[in-house]
Design a protein that fits this description.
single chain; Immunoglobulin-like; 2 domains; 5-stranded mixed beta sheet
Length: 193
């Protein structure tokens, strides 16, 4: 009896495992991969987040895949978590709800960064603060030029405004909005009176 019992035990265990896998234990997929293409990543590395995990993309890479799959029916949002030092990267097709097929159309485009600045006329006092979005610069009295500390990527919009007027003066902006070209831009004019 002991011999028969030790023989049947492994057979019963094999039958139980086979029955469980026939019920779907590991054979069905309820998640999808998330990937896409990269253009213009010619220097540095780029870090993307999908809301669940991150992926670091190396210089000259043209494709990427997130390490963790997205559950079908879950929302995802691909964003740039860390930009390369000399580039600005943006994401297209980065949000959605995971369906039953792998997601492979999230596009990342990187473009070179360039300095944004210009000239200042008649600034005789302190207190002038210029802004380009959240980036600001405070030229000192008698400054003839200015440059924003954060560079702007080729093709990206810029809009220079006056956040604070200098003491006792009024300044205005000329040529303050547009799209960054393929070189540094120094044609914004600040005229004070």
């Amino acid at each position: 009896m002991n011999t028969l019992s030790s023989y049947l035990r492994p057979l019963c265990l094999i039958a139980l495992v086979g029955a469980l896998s026939a019920c779907g234990g590991g054979s069905s997929r309820n998640d999808v991969s998330l990937s896409g293409n990269v253009t213009g990543l010619t220097t540095g590395s780029l870090t993307l987040s999908d809301g669940y995990s991150t992926v670091v993309i190396a210089t000259n890479a043209t494709t990427y895949t997130f390490p963790y799959r997205v559950i079908i029916g879950a929302a995802y949002a691909v964003t740039v978590k860390a930009q390369p030092a000399d580039l600005s990267c943006s994401v297209a097709n980065g949000t959605g709800i995971a369906g039953s097929s792998d997601i492979n159309n999230v596009q990342v485009t990187c473009a070179p960064n360039h300095t944004l600045g210009g000239t200042i006329t008649n600034l005789t006092t302190n207190g002038l603060v210029l802004a380009n979005g959240s980036d600001t610069v405070s030229p000192a009295a008698n400054a003839a030029t200015f440059t924003f500390p954060v560079k702007v990527g080729s093709g990206f919009a810029y809009g220079v405004t006056i956040l604070s007027q200098p003491t006792g003066q009024t300044c205005s902006v000329l040529n303050g909005a547009g799209y960054m070209g393929s070189t540094d831009l120094a044609s914004v004019q600040i005229v004070c009176s």
